Amino acid sequence: MTARYPNSAIQRRAQHFSNLLKEPDLIDLLTQPADVTRVDLTWARFVSAETGWGPAQRGSVPEDGFLTIGGRFFMSGFYAHAPSSYVFNLGNHWKTFKSSYGLQDGHEGSVVFVVRGDDKELFRSTLISDRRLRQLEVDVTGVQRLELIVEDGGNGIGHDWGVWIEPVLER
């Protein structure tokens, strides 16, 4: 049977949900061949991951299920309720980290997004308290250890559902 709407948002979400139920083949950032020039960090092995509420999640969020900002659905990213931290070993093999970020739809918190490389701050967002998607690009040349952090915006951690969207590393 052929689907009536092959590119519909419902079918994209259904396929994404089906993929989330499978055990992912995680990417080892240290052993990627030199001809691999871009990786989706969502599916990379991390050294550690912690969130302020609920489990660390790849490609989804607790309860709501889908990563959404400003009404847009995303298949790639991390749930990062403040305070949160995702740590990756880059092994000095990557040059650029790119990601979008923001607050998950339906949550009224306030957060700050931080990128650290080898314990040095490489990026700090302004205070985020709306559901607007923002982008960042950070030079990670020479970085061994990358950390993606979401901090509380200063008014308590209630509803501080930060999300990293489509995080990628490039050579």
Jot down its keywords:
about 170 residues, mainly beta, Jelly Rolls, 6-stranded antiparallel beta sheet, 5-stranded antiparallel beta sheet, 1 helix, 13 strands, about 5% helix
Brief write-up:
The protein has 171 residues and is mostly beta strands.
Task: Write up what this structure looks like.
- By secondary structure, the chain is mainly beta.
- It contains one helix and 13 strands; from the N terminus they run H-E-E-E-E-E-E-E-E-E-E-E-E-E.
- The chain has one domain: Sandwich (Jelly Rolls).
- 7% of the residues lie in helices and 40% in strands.
- Strands 1, 3, 6, 8, 11 and 13 form a six-stranded antiparallel β-sheet that branches. A five-stranded antiparallel β-sheet has the order 2-7-12-9-10, with no helix packed on it. It has a two-stranded antiparallel sheet with strand order 4-5.
- The mean pLDDT is 92.
